[in-house]
Backbone:
């Protein structure tokens, strides 16, 4: 079953309508929707688990959750947000928008693309179904350190289901990464040189390479863990010549690049959005791309800064490499601020989320530099300071950029806009709620509160900040509810958006909203990184521009 | 395509270089092996892209090109929907559950996986 496409293809009807159509789709946009829909459901589930955590920690000596329940809940909360929400939502956006941004009719391998998304969904459901197993869900923390995760300390099927679920999710991610790289390398429209790629696409290309080199060590670590658990292996058992630190090495060789797998796509989104609402091209395009490459490269050589306190790694090397990452990240801040500098700024909802991203990510980044210093890390290791830092990077950073992307691209994906009024209200609730929740965690971390404890004494000095964090989470929760309300209201009112409501410049805005089956019925000439803006704002049409590409129907499906 | 190959080439050389530097600073074998393998894997990718594209000209790499010059070229074959990816994914998920709950699930998963593989092969030929 295939469609032969001659350049540029035209719309033709979907092969199968309804539920069967969704289950059998190989179209990149529908697969993008599947990714985004599934990650949103997992996000709500992970958010609900966070709510339970904050209720439990709101007061000292609380017994809302038992110790075992608490362990399961923070494990699956972390797993959900890392493996089932933030990393795959980048792949969801990429599935939908990378082909559109480069002028391609689909991803390079559509069937492989469909397999990837179903592996992701199947893996996620496997992890969640482990709550129904005899010992409950996994409870060894999202890092799953051995020997805590071995069969002696973590018996039961829930732990095994976690391992198998993550293996499925990882395989899906690797296949999507292969697909994205092949698509960007081989399916660009004429004139779309690599140095004219939209920066979201550039960052997805770099992220894909990171996935390809980072996920296999995770798969190896988990396979060896499973062998230890069930087949008499001793990879992580020092009593039989194994090494528990081996697991940490393998895990963090994946785990630190994973941080950038969860951040780089959203740097890309922010970098596509800010120029549009600053009415300027991006400041320092090449510098931004090189900074992304530098971050990706350096991120592969810093894994053991998560292991300073093991005492068996070379702390100065990993500390130095970690400090170095601040340089290309700082360059990106100059890119973003330089783009806004003297621009004609407007503050529509996507731009508000981007500014929220900049402020929160700055805090996450600076505390990251602090933790890269081994002496500070020795004091802060395993405290709530690390938890707060991580949430500022992934929640205040990535999640805010995700919302920026949703508000920015929703009109393209659906043909109608989200309400600006509800969107801005939601932003302020989320921004204030987020900072109320996670800033106090820096305070309790500095006061020595360890992460992953189920409750604490009233005399520890942690009660006030924890109560404030739980109240803040309530405000944050209202912000998320407002987003859901916005979706419902906007779907009902269906205010038409037009094809290019933001006057944006990248190629996805050249097609209709929503785009047709194979994306484009015409393409503007591509002479810069924002061809649509060039075309819409051409000063001297006869001299500068050629005619748009004519409609050329595909030959239909078989 | 030069930029794509350079991108992979530099990434590969970076992996090998940092692996060598890491070895002489730490004399720690684990990280050295991983870093060098990362570099080698990326270089292999770059080599494959180079082999597949060397000597060819690609319209997407041209700074100035009109669509008329590229008209008529076939971009490729794009699936218009397929049942087999979801069947294959279900096979994989059921199969890995076999490692947890018993061989019978592994067998069921393998059967589904094989069925889907054959289906995909037939489909791609058709």
Residues:
């Amino acid at each position: 079953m295939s469609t032969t496409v001659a350049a540029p293809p035209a719309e033709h009807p979907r092969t199968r309508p309804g539920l069967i159509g969704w289950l059998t789709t190989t179209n990149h946009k529908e697969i993008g929707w599947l990714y985004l829909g599934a990650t949103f459901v997992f996000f709500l589930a992970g958010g609900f688990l966070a709510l339970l955590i904050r209720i439990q920690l709101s007061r000292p000596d609380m017994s809302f959750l038992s110790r075992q329940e608490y362990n399961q809940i923070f494990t699956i909360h972390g797993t959900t947000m890392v493996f089932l929400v933030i990393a795959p939502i980048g792949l969801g956006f990429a599935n939908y928008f990378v082909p559109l941004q480069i002028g391609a009719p689909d991803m390079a391998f559509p069937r492989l693309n469909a397999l990837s998304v179903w592996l992701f969904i199947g893996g996620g459901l496997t992890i969640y179904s482990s709550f129904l197993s005899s010992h409950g869900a996994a409870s060894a923390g999202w890092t799953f350190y051995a020997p805590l995760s071995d069969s002696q300390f973590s018996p039961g099927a829930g732990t095994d289901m976690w391992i198998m679920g993550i293996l499925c999710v990882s395989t899906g991610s690797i296949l999507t990464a292969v697909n994205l790289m092949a698509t960007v390398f081989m399916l660009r429209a004429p004139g779309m040189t690599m140095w004219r790629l939209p920066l979201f696409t550039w960052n997805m290309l770099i992220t894909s390479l990171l996935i390809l080199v980072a996920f296999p060590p995770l798969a190896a670590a988990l396979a060896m863990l499973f062998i230890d658990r069930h087949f008499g292996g001793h990879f992580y058992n020092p009593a039989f010549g194994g090494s528990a630190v081996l697991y940490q090495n393998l895990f963090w060789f994946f785990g630190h690049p994973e941080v950038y797998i969860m951040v780089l796509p959203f740097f890309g989104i922010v970098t596509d959005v800010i120029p549009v609402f600053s009415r300027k091209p991006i400041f320092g395009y090449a510098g931004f791309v090189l900074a992304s490459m530098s971050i990706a490269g350096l991120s592969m050589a810093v894994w053991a800064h998560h292991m300073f306190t093991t005492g068996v790694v070379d702390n100065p090397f990993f500390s130095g490499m970690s400090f170095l990452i601040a340089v290309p990240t700082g360059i990106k801040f100059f890119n973003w601020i330089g783009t806004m500098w003297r621009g004609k700024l407007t503050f529509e909802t996507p731009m508000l989320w981007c500014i929220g991203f900049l402020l929160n990510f700055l805090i996450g980044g600076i505390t990251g530099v602090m933790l890269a210093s081994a002496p500070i890390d020795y004091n802060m290791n395993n405290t709530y300071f690390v938890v707060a830092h991580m949430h500022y990077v992934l929640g205040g950073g990535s999640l805010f950029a995700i919302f920026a992307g949703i508000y920015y691209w929703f009109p393209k994906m659906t043909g109608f806009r989200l309400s600006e009024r509800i969107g801005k209200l939601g932003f302020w609730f989320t921004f204030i709620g987020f900072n109320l929740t996670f800033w106090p965690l820096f305070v309790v971390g500095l006061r020595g509160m360890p992460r992953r404890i189920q409750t604490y004494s009233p005399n520890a000095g942690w009660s006030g900040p924890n109560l404030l964090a739980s109240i803040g989470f309530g405000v944050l929760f209202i912000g998320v509810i407002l987003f859901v309300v916005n979706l419902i209201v906007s779907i009902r009112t269906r205010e038409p958006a037009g094809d290019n409501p933001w006057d944006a410049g990248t190629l996805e805005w050249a097609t209709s909203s929503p785009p047709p089956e194979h994306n484009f019925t015409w393409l503007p000439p591509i002479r810069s990184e924002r061809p649509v803006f060039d075309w819409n704002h051409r000063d001297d049409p006869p001299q500068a521009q050629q005619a748009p590409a004519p409609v050329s129907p595909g030959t239909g499906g078989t | 395509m030069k930029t794509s190959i350079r991108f992979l080439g530099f990434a590969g050389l970076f992996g090998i270089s940092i692996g060598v530097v890491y070895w002489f600073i730490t004399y720690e074998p684990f990280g050295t092996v991983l870093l060098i393998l990362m570099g080698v894997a990326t270089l292999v990718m770059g080599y494959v892209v180079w082999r597949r594209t060397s000597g060819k000209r690609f319209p997407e790499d041209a700074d100035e090109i009109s669509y008329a010059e590229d008209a008529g070229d076939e971009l490729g074959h794009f699936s218009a929907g397929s049942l087999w990816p979801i069947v294959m994914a279900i096979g994989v998920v059921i199969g890995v559950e076999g490692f947890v709950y018993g061989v019978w699930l592994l067998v069921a998963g393998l059967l589904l996986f094989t069925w889907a593989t054959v289906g995909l092969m037939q489909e791609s030929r058709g």
Summary: Residues 84-125 of chain B form one domain. The mean pLDDT of chain B is 88. Chain B touches chain A through 64 residues (CB under 8 Å).
